[in-house]
Amino acid sequence: MTDASPYFVAYSTGESGKEDIYLQFLSSSTDRLTVKVMFGWNNTTHAAIKIADDSNNSYMNVKDSTSFLYWIYADLDRLVVATRVGTTYYLHYSGVLKRFWSDKIAISQGAVSAGSNVQISVDDASIFTPGLNYLIKDNANIQRALISAVNTASTPNTITIASLTTGFASGAKIGEDPQAVMVSHNSMSAGWVSTKLLGWDGNTYAHQVNFIMPNASLASYTDPEDRYGLVIMWPIQLTAYSGSDLRGELKECFGVGVAAGLAEDIITVGQETYRIFGNSGANWFAVRES
Fold this sequence. Notes:
- By secondary structure, the protein is an all-beta fold.
- It has one helix and 23 strands.
């Protein structure tokens, strides 16, 4: 923490125990705490492996010279931080998405070699369907590959991958969308996800996702809605920057209209409560508290 840009790295296996969530938090410039997502972290060289972020935008707004209010919501899957700097609110989301695709992950039981018709021992092959493509990744590499055969009768279970162009370490994760880990724009209008449909690309925009939120006109028609004056909480969906791949939703974080209430108000839904924040952008958000 004595570096010019002091930092720490957080790691979690998620609520499922099978995720790879690597987040770096660093103080890189005035009044901001930058957050980066990565495939892994090398403890020997103290270097990130395959960073996905936008150094100009993936950060939390803070204030170095004076005190400010903040709220932290977290579990093993994700972190949501709201700050109030002066009279302005800012939100940040880091962590796993609520996937539209399956979040089931199998773990390889040994090192995997490149080649054709590669048989891999896994802890659970029942999550796969022969003839479909899946992502396989470790902390260094990722590839989208066709699973040609599945054997759930053997111990351990095995799968056969038609072709692999690179090898993978023991403990590699295999699934429809492994490591769907995101860091958000400081205004919660976009984010950056560590993996993409076809694997990895160092280009920032290849990993960018845009938030799909209710626009001002739609929110004004429905929030609060006319019949009973109820507040509408919209799932916040994310699409790849190209618009060709829906990635999922934010977990326990919803969009609301500006008429939902005042910032810091509580919305109660059954036994659950949500606090609302008027974000610095045009959108307001409700974050689950309990």
